[in-house]
Amino acid sequence: VTAFPVDLDFDSTGTGYVLDKNGLIFRIKQDGVRDTVPWMILPSDVTESSVNFRAMALHPGFNDPDSRGFGRFYTIEPEKAGTGYPDFVPEYGANQEHHQDALVEYRTQEPGARMFTGARKVLARFSQPGPAHNVNDLAFDRIGRLFVAIGDGADATPGRNQPSRNAMSLMNVYGKVLRIDPLGDNAANGRYGIPSRNPFLVIDGSLPEIWCYGLRDPLRIEFDPYRDWLSIVDRGEDGIEELNVCERGGEHFGWDLCEGSYFYPPSKGQRPTEGVESPRTEMVTDGATRLTGGFIYRGELFPSLRGRLVFADTSGRLLAARTDGDGSI
């Protein structure tokens, strides 16, 4: 469809929207035919060209004129350092700003138009100390709450005062998944909302946006509407790739205390006994093969896969694993 597709979402009519790494969005009609011109071109004069575009998500009410989410969709856009005042700065590793990631809302009054026309609004800015481990993915739940997957800030050697340490602290958003209401206004900057049942909302010193934490580089997240679970693919430090399932919010997935099921470095061979949620499945790779995404399958074409985690890696393999935590593939 495009030379470098990085994300795909569908509206309620079955029309697909494909984002490529250069910031072009193409529409795919129900018959599988792609429009010959981009539906939208995201790059601007403040785009940081050394960092790829990575994620977009349509509001569940995108095609519903009676929904507050009508015509709204969301992107993560890399922008040059200093473009705006950041809402979030790393607690560790913030001695330089490589670029900013902007969480952007677009709104159109004509979702079915061949090309986008409408308004743009930046909901939040994230200062990024490095070109990787940044804001990676977006996913909506059934009622329009938006999950935002964020890496620990930079691909650097783990340790004290390194970006990896962001993941364990509840005082910053890095190494976390956030849950926000993009149509609300009770956040600190007034441009989005904080859902009333977020797990750290009433804990002093914690950021109320946080849904779960202890993640290194959560590359892809997918919401499972059947169980209200969030599946998280987290890329590891030493070739250990994790598939996590967030069932309730508030989970600590271990980084940088743990890598996979074991204390970091994993050669210690010891598992934490409390306070850390172990991966549902983990894979040891050669470093060249990495996980790229996964979800809980609820379809009907492959009954044997129903309720399992289905995921892919960069070698082109499709794999499946149980979600009960025994690690079997």
Mean pLDDT over the residues: 93
Cα(first) to Cα(last) distance is 31 Å
How is the largest sheet built, in terms of strand order? 1-2-3-4
Tell me, briefly, the overall form. Answer: globular
Which series of helices and strands comes N to C?
A: EEEEEEEEEEEEEEEEEEEEE
How many distinct helices? 0
- The proportion of residues in beta strands is 25-35%
Approximate helicity band:
under 10%
| Main pleated-sheet profile | 4 strands, antiparallel
In the predicted model, the low-confidence regions spanning at least 5 consecutive residues are none
What is the structural class? mainly beta
Radius of gyration: 19 Å
> How many DSSP E strands?
21
Salient structural properties:
mainly beta, 4-stranded antiparallel β-sheet, 21 strands, globular
Describe this structure in words.
It is built from no helices and 21 strands. The chain is an all-beta fold and 329 residues long. A hairpin with a 5-residue loop joins strand 9 and strand 10.
